[in-house]
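Worked problem 6 (solution included).
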Amino acid sequence: MKRDAGLMIMSGINKIKKLREERKMSRKELADKLQISYWALSKYENNERTPDITLLRKIAQEFGVSIEYLAGLSDENLLLSTSPVIQKILQLPPEALNEIDLFVDFLNYKYKLKAK
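Solution. The predicted structure is:
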């Protein structure tokens, strides 16, 4: 694997492109669903641009994969949880994700102390 424009490339194939092709979607169809231009999607798929976190979240939701998978932090194509809590989190604005991250760190700390 090599890193290019911020996304990991699997055997020379961009993960967004790979997922789109697996679902037999046209580039225009996916661009319309994501509310971006055909040309912007083309640049993401050809690793000429890197999507921001908001767009990564939309793409992950569209394909039912994790942001970690899209960003190359995980090689596993894990489906997003259908848990109602996870679905609520996915609806939050990007700035809320920082607060959730901090709260999860707090909970991890709290419950590690209780386990001792």
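Discussion: Confidence is low (pLDDT under 50) at residues 1-12.
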